[in-house]
Amino acid sequence: MGLKKAGIVFYLERVYSVVTGALFVLLITRNLTPSEFGAWSVVSSILSYASLATIVNYWVTRFRARGDGTATSSGLVLAVFFSSLSIIILLFLSHGITNAFKIPYEIVLLSALYIPFYYINSALYSSLYAVNPTLSAVTEFVFETTKLILAVVFATTLHVTLYTAMLAVLGGHAAQTLILLLFTREDLKHKPGLETAKRIILYSWVNLIGVPASLIALADIPILSHFASNRIVAYYTVVLTYTNMISYSYVLSRGLYPSLLSNTENAKAKLDDTLRLTFLMGVPAMFGAIALAPNLLYILNPDYMKASSVLTVASLTALLGVFNAILSDTVQGLESRDTVAVHPRMLAETAIFKTTLLGVAKAAIGIAGVFIAVLYFGDSLTTAVYARIAWLLAEILVTLGLYTMTRGLLDLKSLASGLSRYVASSIPMVLVALVIDPWRIREALLAVLLGGAVYFATLYLIDSWFRGLMQSIARSLKTVSVTG
User: Fold this and answer.
1) Are 415 and 398 in contact (CB under 8 A)?
2) Could you give phi then psi for residue 132, rounded to 5 degrees?
3) pTM of the complete model
4) Model confidence pLDDT, tens digit, residues 151-198
5) DSSP state for residue 33 in the 8-state scheme
6) Count of CB atoms within 10 A of residue 31's CB?
7) Helix segments in 102-219, DSSP class H
8) Cys-Cys with 126: which of 10, 57, 68, 294 at CB 3.0–4.6 Å?
9) Within 13 A of 193's CA, how many CA atoms are on the CB side?
């Protein structure tokens, strides 16, 4: 149950994140105009650019998982350095950002405060995840809870604005920093290692190859904002409120990567179990989002209901992206040529480099499609639909590339068998939800509860693997209650 336990804890955190996130978004979307919400998305995109140097923490995870006790403190020192540099650059560009994207100057200044938390949390989280994935999930509970509490406080004591919404999220990041420092305090007793820091930086050239991909991919929102409108950005991004529930099924696989780093035995069985566990939640989440797209978007704001087709395409893309992420984790987790100090150029022969190149290709295809959509359709809702289709095509390309790297590990027969059962169980779930036809939050919760009950009951009857999983969980809970 090791892999499953870590995955289930991460998933519970993501479910909690979706619930608290939905409440948070409801507080915000009902008080901000679509243009203001779109501006927030632009700010988030800019912050993603500012935090690109967190890519070095990829190696913090790998080194810490393989026993390097100085990886945590070394990563923290690098985080302080890179965050300071990023803040300086953002402040230098602040007036240009305000003029180009019609974002208030004080909002840009506030966004600069996010940067040190992004870098410090990334370094500490990467280290904690390497040795205790379950505790790293706990820190995300802290972030989500603090963010929502502050949002409620602002909503009841102040008028909700873009500024107060961003303050609430900033408070969540600060709370996560404190809990991460607590959980990694023993590691931080080690002095930073110069040799470790050098390896982290030198090996990061592989990840640096992927930076253009990230820069390109992050350009979708600025492109839509500048050449179309922030209203189109809102339609393009608001669907993430629900597709995140699909994407979050990936966290059920979060125990796979550190497990493979420390022990590559039974890799095929680990991958098979991980895919089953992930699609167990990802498939019904996708069907539910597609079937209830108008309803779900109406709940956020009636104006978003017209973006139903955007949500449909984004849902398909999200599930395929989860599959690709698991395959990528598998080939990178099995890569062993960096277990000892090697010359950085030797990493060009590894699966790490190959998956990075796939990421570059994905970004290039996706952003080209977004740009074509903007040029062809202009400022219309159709732009958002075809922009999402571009990313779906890009994910399909990545799937083909990863399949060539995992053919010896991927059990297609087992995968197809599991998927067929999940699809079969999703059909009655969707029918129940459509009968309820939710247009309010209370009805939506009822649809989720009854639809979920039907899904799991049907799956329990037709899938022996799921029955075994439930029985294993029941035995674990019984053992805990007896020992308690």
Assistant:
1) no
2) -150, 80
3) 0.76
4) 888 888 877 778 888 898 999 999 999 999 999 999 999 999 888 999
5) -
6) 17
7) 105-112, 114-131, 133-157, 162-183, 194-203, 205-209, 211-217
8) 57
9) 15
